[in-house]
Amino acid sequence: LGGLGFGMKWNMGWMHDTLHYFSSDPVYRKYMHNELTFSIWYAFFENFVLALSHDEVVHGKGSLMGKMAGDDWQKFANLRLLLSYMYAHPGKKLLFMGMEFGQWSEWDHDRSLDWHLLQYPQHQGVHKLVGVLNHLYKSIGAMHEVDFDQAGFQWLDLHDVSNSVLSFLRKDRSGEGQVVVVCNFTPVVRHNYRLGVPRQGFYREMFNSDSKDYGGSGQGNMGGVESRPVPFHGLEQSISMSLPPLGAIFFEVPAVINKADVKSEAS
Question: Of 234, 249, 239, 252, which Cα lies nearest the Cα of 172?
Fold first, then answer.
C-alpha cells in the first residue's frame, strides 16, 4: 500500500538458500537444515514468488538439473524433490523453460531447448511430475488459496535435523481443507516414520515424487495410512509411514467428522 504498485516480489533469499542446499551432498544436509526452515520466518511479510528463473541457468551457472547433488539417479530424484517442495511451500511459483523436463545444459538464447531429451524415461518422468504438480496446485485450495498469510501454513516438525526431514500442513481459506507435506532430503528410505497429524482418519497419499510413474524407485504407502490415537508432536493423532529416498509425499487430511472435532482442532 502506497508503494510502486507491484503485487508480488521475487523471493531471492529462498532461491539462494534452497539451491545451495540441493547442490550439497545429502550427508552434510543435517548441518544445513536452517537453510530450508529460515524462509518461513519471513515468508508472510511480502507477497512472494518462489523464483527459479532464467538468472539461475545462464552465464556459467549451469542448468537446474546440473546443480543437483549426487549421481544421475540422485540428480533426478533431487530435482523431483525440489520441484515438489517448491509447489508445497507458501508463495507463487516460477519455473524457467527447460526445468520442467530436466534439461542438462544451461540456457542459450541462440538455440532451442533440448526437447529431444523427452525420448528418455527419466526426463519424461520429470515432465509428468510437473504436470501433476500443476494440476494439484490448481485444483486443491490448500495448495494455493492462502500463500501470503500464516493461516495457510503450519509446521508439523521442523526439528528432525538428524534425518533431514521436514513436515508441514498447508490449509485452504476455510481451514478445513488441509494437506500434509513430508519431505525426505536424504537417499535413505525411512520406514515406520511417525508424524503427528491434526485429525483422526485415513490419510490418502495423493502424491509421491518417488513414484515409478516419475522415474522413482516406487517406495510409498500403498495409497495411504490410517491414523492412530498415539500422541506425537503435540497432537493426539499420528501416522506411521514409509518415506521414500529423496522424496516428497503429500497426504490428504481427512474431513472434519463432527463439531466436536472442529472444536478440538481449534483448541
Answer: 252
E strand map for 139-210: 153-157, 165-171, 178-184, 190-197, 202-208
CA-closest candidate to residue 221, choices 232, 206, 237, 201: 206
Distance between CA 104 and CA 114 in Å, rounded? 8
- For the residues 174-193, what does the mean pLDDT come to? 97
Give the integer Cα–Cα distance in Å for 156 and 240: 14
C-alpha cell at 194: 511417525
Is the model's pLDDT at 266 over the cut of 70? no
Predicted confidence (pLDDT) per residue in 92-106, tens digit: 999 999 999 999 999
Instruction: Name, in order, each residue with C-beta under 8 angstroms of 95's C-beta and a sequence gap of 6 or more.
Output: 52, 83, 130
**Among the residues of 89-222, which ranges form H helices?**
121-139
